[in-house]
Design a protein that fits this description.
- InterPro entries: RibonucZ/Hydroxyglut_hydro.
- This is Metallo-beta-lactamase domain-containing protein.
- It comes from Mitsuokella multacida DSM 20544.
- The chain is an alpha/beta fold.
- It has a single domain, classed as Ribonuclease Z/Hydroxyacylglutathione hydrolase-like (Metallo-beta-lactamase, Chain A, 4-Layer Sandwich), CATH 3.60.15.10.
- The protein is built from three helices and 17 strands.
- It has helices at about 30-40, 145-165, 185-195, and strands at about 1-10, 10-15, 20-25, 45-50, 70-75, 90-95, 100, 105-110, 115-125, 130, 165-170, 170-175, 195, 200, 225, 235-240, 240.
- The strands form three sheets. An eight-stranded mixed beta sheet has the order 6-5-4-3-2-1-16-17, with no helix packed on it. It has a seven-stranded mixed beta sheet with strand order 7-8-9-10-12-14-15, covered by helices on one side. The chain has a two-stranded parallel sheet with strand order 11-13.
- The mean pLDDT is about 95.
Length: about 240
């Protein structure tokens, strides 16, 4: 079972067995991470940050250093002045197309179409794989010049060639309401060209919860979708089904 708690924006607390994974915790209004760490009902704790944008990385995560096994951060975060305060013995920076592992999990990084990386994390004992896209998306903004839109498409397609056939139990992927009618363009291609078993949308603060329109998935292939909006909102994925 995969237990998920929405923090904010692209931030999530994920529990798999006795391991906690925290992605892009820049702000946690509901105090979900504080509560989970205080409960001490875990054996391992890892923090991930996909890039240095303020709404994905904040150095407050250092306060959990005593309990954390590792901080796995995109390499662009290395230049942030706040990083000098982290314990280097618990810090790993990953460039795109790099990997890191220990006895608990294996991490593979991919490129982004904005800044930083995306992460594919596999829990070894459970055999569970989680993909967190960070800011990887088809950023096809309304009003952009045709040349810029084509560059965005090319960057997205190039990365999708690397991700084609990716298998994951759940993928966290942007469906950004600011993009208007093109908000789910990248997610549609991503779901069609990978083998993910559930989709959790992110990066859409202040917009209505998204649900896949008719024809969004390839014929004969429907996957469960969760589009959280409220900090602290929870869901569970069990046997390929979202329970809430």
């Amino acid at each position: 079972m995969i237990e998920m708690t929405y923090l904010l924006n692209s931030g999530f607390l994920v529990r798999v067995g006795r391991t906690l994974l925290v992605f892009d915790d820049f702000k946690d209004p509901a105090g979900a991470v504080d509560a989970a760490v205080a409960a001490a009902d875990f054996d391992h704790l890892y923090f991930f940050a996909s890039h240095s944008h303020f709404d994905h990385f904040d150095a407050h995560i250092r306060r959990y250093e005593a309990q954390a096994d590792r901080y796995i951060l995109s390499d662009d975060i290395r230049c942030m002045k706040d990083c000098s305060a982290f314990n280097p013995q618990k810090l790993t920076f990953l460039k795109p197309y790099a990997s890191w592992q220990d006895d608990v999990l294996a991490v593979e990084s991919f490129d982004s179409t904005d800044l930083g990386t995306s992460f594919c994390v596999t829990l070894k004992e459970e055999g569970t794989t989680i993909f967190h896209a960070g800011d990887f998306n088809w950023w096809d903004w309304t009003g952009e010049p045709a040349e810029q839109r084509k560059l965005a498409e090319n960057a997205f397609r190039k990365q999708m060639k690397k991700l084609e056939g990716l298998e994951a139990d759940v993928a966290f992927f942007p469906v950004d309401g600011r993009m208007g009618p093109r908000l789910d363009k990248g997610a549609k291609v991503f779901c069609a060209e990978t083998e993910i078993r559930a989709l959790v949308t992110m990066h859409s603060i202040g917009y209505s919860a998204w649900q896949p329109p008719a024809g969004f998935f390839a014929p004969g292939r429907e996957i469960p979708v969760w589009s959280p909006r409220k900090s602290g909102e929870k869901n569970c994925l069990k046997d390929g089904r979202l329970l809430k």
